[in-house]
Amino acid sequence: MTGAIATVFLTTFLGSTVEAVEMVAIVVGVGATRGWRSTWFGVIAGLAVLVASVVVFGLALGSVPIGPLRLVIGVLLLVFGLQWLRKGIMRVAARRLTGMGISAVTDSERWVGPGVDWTAFVLALKGVLLEGLEIAFIVVSVGLAAREMTAAIVGGTAALVLTAAVGTAFAAAFNRIPRSVLQLVVGILLTTFGTFWSLEGLGVEWPSGDLSILPLLAFYAVIALSYTRIERRRVVAA
Amino acid sequence: MSTALSRVATGVGAFFRFWYGFIVGDDWTVAVAVGAALLITAALNQRGIIAWWVLPLTVVVATAASLRRTPAPRPAG
């Protein structure tokens, strides 16, 4: 492996891993909270649209403006994430950490009706589509710039496969977390990604670029825990 | 024909109910606050003013206000 090929592989692998982690976090969170069947439908639909976009646009994908897409998907994830954040805060305040190993059918947030759970479907589709497109942009732009498209594709694909494998292993652990806590965690994640993407879509620059996601996540987690404590006091006082 | 029309009307109604629930949910003030924060952020950003903090701050305030309006959750038995 020459130096140029190794550099392209590493660049696309690391860049794509960041995006793939975001994708897998959303999919695993939604699947564990709402149920897996409709989440998988959303993942498959997202991948289908993604593959179709890559096939149709090909190398021109790098010139597609991603800003408006980030804004729309970011805002939708944010407003929905805030609903789960509020519900998660109230449920954790009411139940604390009870519900360990709670059955899927007794959980009010799980989809138990017939047909497709469109909420899980749409959330999974959006996460896969946006992050998948970002991975495609990284692969196309780095591959074209270095004229090493094969190494770029291998790097992006390896990142996606590896992260998906880790996420699948992680999904089993998620099933042991109380649903109320899971809803709070996924609410924090969706609110974080939604805030980050919608502002990126508006063209706002974050102080530390992509790394700003981590302090933003920590900030929302601290706020959520503080609000849970306040709500817990209301529960005890009621 | 009327059955087909009523099916279409049901489908359209379900479509809008789904998106209303997805975007607005049980507290419309949060969605409005997020929309207003995005408009303010866009306006500030266009004038070259650092504006990334507006949306997180709005999230904190709107969530607190929404929780305060909601009756205290009942403890699980």
Give a short synopsis of this structure.
Chain A is built from seven helices and no strands. With 238 residues, chain A is mainly α.
Question: Explain this structure to me?
Answer:
The complex is a heterodimer of chains A (238) and B (77). Chain A has 238 residues and is an all-alpha fold. Chain A has one domain. Chain A contains seven helices and no strands. Chain A has helices spanning 3-34, 36-57, 67-95, 118-146, 149-174, 179-202, 213-237. The longest helix of chain A is centred in the first third of the chain and has 32 residues, at 3-34. Chain A is globular. With 77 residues, chain B is mainly alpha-helical. Chain B has a domain at 25-70. In chain B, helix 2 packs antiparallel against helix 3 (54-69). Chain B is flat. The termini of chain B are far apart. The chains are: A mainly alpha (238), B mainly alpha (77). At the A-B interface, helix 3, helix 4, helix 6 and helix 7 of A face helix 1, helix 2 and helix 3 of B.
Could you say which overall geometry of chain B the principal axes of the C-alpha atoms support?
flat
How far the N terminus sits from the C terminus of chain B, by CA atoms, comes to 52 Å
Counting DSSP E segments of at least 2 residues, the number of strands of chain A comes to 0
Largest interface by residue count? A-B, 44 and 32 residues
Helix content of chain A: over 70%
Total beta-strand segments of chain B = 0
Write the layout of secondary structure elements.
The complex is a heterodimer of chains A (238) and B (77).
Chain A: H1 3-34, H2 36-57, H3 67-95, H4 118-146, H5 149-174, H6 179-202, H7 213-237
Helix pairs in contact in A: 1-2, 1-4, 1-5, 1-6, 2-4, 3-4, 3-6, 3-7, 4-5, 6-7
Chain B: H1 2-23, H2 28-46, H3 54-69
